[in-house]
Amino acid sequence: MDPSPRTADHGPLGGRHERPDARAKVAGSARYVEDLALPGMLHAALAVSPVPSARLLGLELAAARAVDGVEAVLTAADIPGKNQVGVVFPDQPLVVEERVRMVGDRLALVAARTPEAAWQAARLVQPLLEALPGVHDPVAALNSGAPPVHEGGNLIRTFKVVRGDIARESTHADVVVEAEYKIGGQEHAYLEPQACLAIPEGRQRITIIASCQCPFYIQQAVARVLGIPLAAVRVEQAPTGGGFGGKEDYPSEPAACAAVLAFATGRPVRLVLPRELDMQASTKRHAVVVRHRWGAGRDGRLRFAEVDTVMDAGAYIGLSTVVAERANVSSIGPYHVPAVRVATHVAYTNNLFGGAFRGFGHPQVTWAAEATMDKLARRLGIDPLEVRRRNVLDDRRRRFCTGQLLHRPVLARECLDRAAALAGWDEFHTQPRTTAGPDRDGMGIGLALYGCNLHHGGQRLDRSSAVVILQADGSVVVRVGLTEMGQGNLAAAQTIAAQALGVDPAVVQVWQPDTTTVGDSGPTVASRGAHMSGLAILDAVKRLRTKLDPVAAELLGCGAGEVELADGFAFVRGKPERKVSVARVAAEMAARRIEAIATGWHRTRARRFDAETGTGAPYEFYAIACHIARVKVDEELGLIRVEEVSAAHDVGQVIHRDALEGQIQGGIVQGIGWATTEELKLDRGRLTNASFTDYIIPTAADAPKVTIAVVESEGATGPFGAKGVGEPSLIPAPAAVRNAVCDALGVEIDRLPLSPPTVVAALGARHPFAWLLSEKQVDEHERLATVDRKR
Amino acid sequence: MAERVTITLTLNGERRIFEVLPGRRLLDLLRDDAGLIGTKEGCGAGECGACTVLLDGAPVTSCLVLAASADGHEVVTVEGLQSAGHLHPFQEALVKHGGVQCGFCTPGIAVTGAAIVARGEADPSEQARLLSGNLCRCTGYTKVMEALQDAFPEGSHAKS
Q1: 3-state DSSP call for residue A452?
Q2: Which of B42, B106, B142 comes nearest A26 by C-beta?
Q3: How far away is chain B from the Cα of A228, in angstroms, using its nearest Cα?
Q4: Which of A23, A31, A666 lies nearest to residue B140, judging by beta carbons?
Q5: What's the DSSP call for residue A435?
Q6: What CATH topology corresponds to A22-30+463-603?
Q7: pLDDT tens-digit profile of A397-430?
């Protein structure tokens, strides 16, 4: 019996059935953390540093303690366990002891009877700070003499890929493109801010209900900070209002704060971050500087690629080294390149806290790689689509950047062709472009090859647990360790369980992840949610069927090996008229007290990767995504309107069609925002635009038309052959937009976002009003949009 | 200590009386005093639209409306869009079209969308402009707009 049969003909797989969480959400009855309240509950607030770099000499707490309603004001000294929340490396205290390293570093924790009293008290905490020199430029941070953010200097680590003979390949290169790309970071802007509720049981046990992606990360952090065993910490994921990576590791920090306050006061404590503090202090997509030196022959075929990237990690390592690992091996895109030299440096600064964000380093290096491919195309006079066709990996040449052989089929050319057909690439390029008025039309390509699931370096986390319980009435309880944050993991888990058990999805209830109900399943990241939930569920169903099939067989009068499940029935293989409902079998199992609960487990096979040379198998399998954007640019104002994005995605097998399309549509828009209007404006580490007023994300009026080609194929190892789409849905879009804008204007823009001042500055003397804008004025615009390099 | 004011409003069709401090936000009255937790706080600054309710039929960001100024007026929250146990047609359409992901923006979107339907505005670009005060980070808006088109009674489709 095949536990994951390809059943495209029948069953819910690939369908558009109602998502299980939609109805409650649309009615306003889903309860997020801030919708939960308990009698006696206190509200937490955080006193944080207003400066990026300082020595903490003392804290004046009297004024804070005197605020009416305040029950506790705590400092680092009050932490019962270890004052440490670094998710990978222990370089990050929960509460500052002696050194402030970022604006937003926590100085004190407050609990009060109302949120107003708590935040008022937090503002009255007076820190005694001795300013220390800070460093705000990641490239300058790596120079000797730069103020060290931590002992040991500002270079956290360098990752490399070294393959082939650059010197020899250089002799075959007829054109060499050199470029420096300055790529800004991004704020997640989930609609629900960071939020958690800590419910203590004396000082022995605690429950944390959190808006989060990784309940097991929170469990580990809280156990460490409280100094209690893992089993004494229960973490339940609440309905979570968006994550995108911003709720991967960061939630452990507010959760540990609430936990410390809960233990100290003996009361439940709820913490919801105000939007401004959330934007300042929580993790961000890394800002990076990428330098390229790529060479190709006259025929457009790449000969060598040199990439040097510096990532701004901010004050603490967090997940920066993991992001760098992914960026590192993804730096040359889905292209065949005989010689490669990549170096990815991770630098401490006193800027924003770099961390996980949908794509995880891949969007930045893809933006750069796709820009260089277009530059090569323009230098050689070759169509950008054609130059990619000539270079992409395929079933014949399928050696990835690191030397890993990709599984067939490698669908890069197929995705390019499908997206180009949807976009009308050839038609667009044969039509004459309008020159009347300020609007310019352009079309551009973004292409990405995404390594699904965790990097080799994260293999120890790569397992997943599920529990399936068949109820006496035939309905089914499913528990998994991967989380729903809007992307559709609940729908995927429900669909896969229903498909495997042959029942209607409506009888399958997937309940919220809870660390006391399943084993540690690792983080819901890296587009691994449906993949890992699904495989663990299929394993559980396989084990359940060792108990179920014999009972069904008895009722049907056949052998246990002949039992099939579909359409709500157990039937005899080949004789569908001999059937009995699954509900009937469940009732019989209950009556006979037969075990109707099964656990499932999946872990990925170990693979080899040499971190020194960057060679081997960093990821288990890969998915291709191609986006082609059509834009209209106002050449006078520098305003970009993305009119249409055509998307082709290599998904293996569709699990839930609406969820898939929703991810692609949402990823494209989030990517467009990063590419055009979302700019993190820093003043020496302080975010000056920490609000939706000044940090501009796309609205309904900005949404482009999105057309989608879903490319299914056989052979992938996911549940029913599914790959992952959470991140491939975003990664190519920003590159496609940049390339379309450059196509429209006929200039190169090497800085992201393509804000109006940046577009205007790139036009230089070609701007229609260049005679009005002096060089000095354009520079001033640019300075306002730039991390201040002089400081 | 400020004195409380007594306000009377029609809340989801029901006449309700509350005593509030003058500075209390309508958002907090709805969530904490009336227990209607469907309306969400996303920013507290009137920018994201998650707190949208109808005030005399017009969408407003309740985080910027003083509860006291609702005295004598009609307020409808996402909970009030339902009637006789049935969801509003736009709410049903959002479910049917897959226009709900994380769900945090959804109540605000449902409320604004209901106002758009009540107004009879069927032109998609005007609908997008009217919805542009409700930020969504998950869906990319496509399925939300498809649901809105589907929420109109038969025969009254987009002018385009």
Answers
A1: strand
A2: B106
A3: 33
A4: A666
A5: -
A6: Aldehyde Oxidoreductase; domain 4 (3.30.365)
A7: 999 999 999 999 999 999 999 999 999 999 999 9
